[in-house]
Design brief:
heterodimer, A: 230 residues, mainly alpha, elongated, disordered C terminus, B: mainly alpha
Amino acid sequence: MTKTPELIDALVEDATPVRRLRPPLVRAGLWLLFAALILGLIAIAHGLRPDYAERLRQPLFVIGMFGALATGALAAVASFRISLPDGSRLWLLLPLPALMLWISTIGYGCLTDWVSMPPDGGDRLGEAVRCFATVVMTSVPLSIAMLVMLRYAALLRAFEVSILGGLAVAAITSFALSLFHDLDASVTILIWNLGTAAIIASLASLFGRSLFTWMAARLMPSIVRPAIRR
Amino acid sequence: MDSSRKIGAAQDWSALMARAQDGDRRAYRLLLEGITPYVRKLAARCFKEPTDIDDAVQDVLLTIHMVRHAYDPRRPFGPWLVAIAHRRIVDRLRRETRWKAREVALTAEHETFVDAATNNNPGTFDEAVLAQAIERLSHDQRQAITMLKLNEMSLKQAAAASGRSVVALKVATHRALKHLRRMLKQESERP
């Protein structure tokens, strides 16, 4: 076993200059900028949903959409804040109001104004495939970016960070869906928005920790590997 | 007096860490050597064994090294250090609890000896009775039990050696075990 003074020698030997992390707010802003870039690219490639201008006049749609956006932004800020060792756990609560607003508008919209599937069915399968493509194109790069930017949290607060990060990705993905796809039937809105969000968030909470542990094993083999080997 | 000294030390640590981030090795050594006794005190509250305490201290030092870029010199160093130490110590405690739940400490009863005679464990079953019971099985069943259970051959090996099919061996073993169970039960019920 290494003795502590020997470890200190080794660490001092390895102490190359490091670049300090930017403030969490700035880093969250960078992540959101990256999200905006992805959404912009999809908008150029796919175009906004055809009835977008009309939809913007419906308060419930606007509140729901921006509730999702606000949830994503606040969850991103909270995850960058909580990833720091001395960040308070109370940051977990930051996205809650926006999250409640977002979920309740979707639920309320479906409750009061249930729109059934059009009788002809439309091009439902094709739309489902396009929806799925949007989900993947938004959530995968955003998750990877989050994981890379917060890798040091692996050693500190993997669980909280993966929950908040997952929520941020899920909310932004849902925002993207309402920008690009005319999900008119209440069922499709529920399934695509909340369903996708639930899947992303649960994947994050299921695998987030193990992904971060994997990251920790790469960052700090001497600590994590013996634990895994056991 | 004591608390003001503590604040002074924390401010020093903050400045030392800021210099360490810029690559000042001397400052870094002073910092690590300065915080070690403090971290050790924190660890000693949770662990009893000196090796455990040492391991926890080293965990904390390594973590600080890995995340030293995440320290903002404008914020106090003390809470930052305590948060990291707490995190690593709690992780270690959790890991330890998991290991302990899976491990069984060996006691004198678990000990075995080179000499075969000392490994007898009378009372669980009488080998002679079992051997007699096996003798009383039919030929097929006895062969199956001997090959598969006593000689620990695989089903494939036993099938090749006996020239019987795997299914036949399985059936024979199953019946043999049932018979043996019945015979041993009768044996134990006999006064």
